[in-house]
């Protein structure tokens, strides 16, 4: 039996459900679309295998976000419940956000979260979806920002090239851009018009090749 090789960074291969795409290592971290049995990586959907550092995932087309443990997501608080809140993140059901899932929260001192607030956190449970805002930069996002909604596949690509996109936009506008794997992108800038320009620039950049993303962003900004 031939020895299966480890998936290489940047390698692209189209896989069908059930295809063996490579070997995992002890340090491998799996993203969406892949399973592992006896260290063998197996495709669970139709898509292209990608790897960055320790992370390996399948880039596939999906209309609705499906939560995976560890996903960083942006969402909006929609309901107050006895032990926390319910949050809309674009999946089939609302996600639970317990009040103890915030930095320094206690039973006596609960975080100040209001219905309508935008939050940034990570998925910690998927059977009954739950998120946590414990961690660096997690929590309630500043008010006054806009939400750009992308397909989850586009969000993953934006995250891969986040530094290029954010640095290019940052040279023109002082802004905050937070992208969730679920496709929700939080955008905050000094003026509403600037936030619209930034959203347009991000959308247009995702239609370009990797090498042309910065050029497209600059072109969109200059045209405004």
Automatic annotation (TrEMBL):
Pfam families the record matches: KH_6, RRP40_S1
Intracellular or extracellular location(s): Nucleus
Main localization of the protein described in the UniProt heading: nucleus
Protein's UniProt keywords contain DNA-binding: no
Lipid metabolism listed as a keyword: no
Record-level GO BP terms: CUT catabolic process; exonucleolytic trimming to generate mature 3'-end of 5.8S rRNA from tricistronic rRNA transcript (SSU-rRNA, 5.8S rRNA, LSU-rRNA); nuclear polyadenylation-dependent rRNA catabolic process; poly(A)-dependent snoRNA 3'-end processing; TRAMP-dependent tRNA surveillance pathway; U4 snRNA 3'-end processing
Superkingdom, taxonomy of origin: Eukaryota
Keywords: Exosome, RNA-binding
Name of the protein this chain belongs to: K Homology domain-containing protein
């Amino acid at each position: 039996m031939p020895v299966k090789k480890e998936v290489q960074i940047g390698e692209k291969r189209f896989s069908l459900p059930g295809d063996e795409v490579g070997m995992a290592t002890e340090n491998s971290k799996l993203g969406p679309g892949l399973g592992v049995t006896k260290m063998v990586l197996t495709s669970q959907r139709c898509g292209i295998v990608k790897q960055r550092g320790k992370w390996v995932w399948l880039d596939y087309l999906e209309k609705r976000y499906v939560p995976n443990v560890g996903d960083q997501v942006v969402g909006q608080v929609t309901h107050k419940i006895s032990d926390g809140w319910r949050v809309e993140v674009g999946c089939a059901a609302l996600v639970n956000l317990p009040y103890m899932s915030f930095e320094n929260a206690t039973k006596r001192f609960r975080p100040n979260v209001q219905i309508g607030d935008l939050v940034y956190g990570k998925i910690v449970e998927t059977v009954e979806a739950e998120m946590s805002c414990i961690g660096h930069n997690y929590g309630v996002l500043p008010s006054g920002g806009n939400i750009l909604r992308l397909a989850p596949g586009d969000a993953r690509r934006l995250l891969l090239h986040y530094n290029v996109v954010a640095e290019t936009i940052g040279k023109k506008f002082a802004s905050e851009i937070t992208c969730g794997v679920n496709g929700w992108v939080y955008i905050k800038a000094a003026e509403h018009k600037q936030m619209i320009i930034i959203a347009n620039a991000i959308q247009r950049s995702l239609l370009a090749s990797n090498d042309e993303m910065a050029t497209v962003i600059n072109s969109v900004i200059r045209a405004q």
